[in-house]
């Protein structure tokens, strides 16, 4: 069929005499209006290459591959190659996007995008911006509240000759993400440097250790690596939550918080704090999220073994940044684990000031790592948007599932623990008082001492634009001891399981604390600490001191007591002069006491209990510290030249008076090489 005049065609038919093709116009003309021919879609060009306009304008050009990856609330371009020119007077055309197993228009999982003359914000629409014969170029606008996820694209046409729908091509599936660059998206973040850090940076720093010995480890988030976006969407799909809820970042981060751990939904990472990692990888061996997420998807959703809090947090940061939610890993030192919603960290003693182990279920972890994510909170009173805390480490259940958050950091700071989600637990982690209780002869308990500055120290995250540590404690709590901080604590406690905790004052003329000089003790040497006592009264005081030190997992769970000084039956009185004078005792733990007991992180806990003879005042305190491990030093050998091999030396000094065995180096370089193990022996 050939074109004769504009809008008309003529046919060439085979001659019945000579069997040759002859133009029928020699005998007659049969005119057919082009607009009466069926309109179909021959091909779709989504302009989806990494260097194309769509990917660049949507800040998705760093994702691996040439799929169309877009952010909601922005327009994107596409070409349609049709079977004939499009005539707006007689033809109709619309796009259809479907996500999930049961797409529904009413739930936003089946989107019908009409052609319009002019695009308007906040709605799905398409406009023809260019024509080229049978080809038309569309500008498509998406809603800033659209569901994120993977959409199947088809094009429906309607012409005088009938209707037609293009065949679904998986290569034209569209990945939709949250959009921190769109003011109408609830994850919008104004500061460009912060977006570069909390959305686009694929390498970070995780902090561990103790408040006096903060260590840092690099973590490769790798959210743009090959297969990671599909792996993150796979995590969402494995949650079996309806895609109709994937437009709300509050709901999505709550789902991710549950899915990163494994106890009740076969999530990504299986936790293990036993120190035995047979059949899996030691949590300390991981240095990034990429291998974990790829393995989880490749194995069909079988949890990856093993992880601890920093692994859960690192993977959470990867998933949230990959999906477009600004996020960061946050480390809290002296992090409380409140098991009974009292919003206090409780320590119980019997009548003889001996620990009652079966009641002491609360604990204080040397450090704990969770996440902040950025979003508006239209479900909360005004002023509670911004950073929200979520925790993927499985500690306590929330509505029957191991998950935590998102909880407004503003609410946590002010003790507004009645605001969702899981604010009481996170408040207790950062600002609970440590309360010591003694059992009476009748079985009841009396509060004998409290520490108001025991938890929530040096809350840390990587600084924007650098590898420096940024202390964000002030975002989580008012300065310790201020009137604002005390009001927040007492406000929160009224909503806990022990609302009368602060009804009785406690005498405090003697105080005690443990201090450490310099960077603290090193692995393989003796640990030296100072016990400092202060007398605030005008009279001298005599003190009876009990101490014990135990090897501890960083979570606050004790493994074994390595040294104990018991003095209840034969106390050694220590005279403490009056009027705020200070008496300091030197406390030493020798290497041979702990050499065979250490666990991951090389952490120890010193527990002191004190009775003042003259007043019967009782004090107690705990001090956690770690033995510093040697630093790994990496030095390049020769010059580094693009496209050529290079070498590096990795070395450290063995601090122990014994030979190390089974030494393995794990080496990873984002964009350089995947994880490689080097067995040293």
From TrEMBL:
Record's bilayer topology term: Lipid-anchor
GO terms classed as biological process: keratinization; nervous system development
Pfam families recorded: Transglut_core (PF01841), Transglut_N (PF00868)
Gene3D superfamilies for this protein: Immunoglobulins (2.60.40.10), Transglutaminase-like (3.90.260.10)
Family: Belongs to the transglutaminase superfamily. Transglutaminase family.
PROSITE patterns linked to this entry: TRANSGLUTAMINASES (PS00547)
Domain Transglutaminase-like: from-to ranges: 301-394
Entry superkingdom: Eukaryota
Catalytic activity, as annotated: L-glutaminyl-[protein] + L-lysyl-[protein] = [protein]-L-lysyl-N(6)-5-L-glutamyl-[protein] + NH4(+)
Active site residues of this protein: 309, 368, 391
Binding annotation for Ca(2+): 431, 433, 480, 485
Subunit structure: Interacts with PLAAT4.
GO annotation, cellular component aspect: membrane
Origin organism lineage: Eukaryota, Metazoa, Chordata, Craniata, Vertebrata
Cofactor: how and how many bound: Binds 1 Ca(2+) ion per subunit.
UniProt-recorded name of the protein: Protein-glutamine gamma-glutamyltransferase K
Cell compartments where the protein resides: Membrane
GO molecular function: metal ion binding; protein-glutamine gamma-glutamyltransferase activity
Entry keywords, A to Z: Acyltransferase, Calcium, Keratinization, Lipoprotein, Membrane, Metal-binding, Palmitate, Phosphoprotein, Transferase
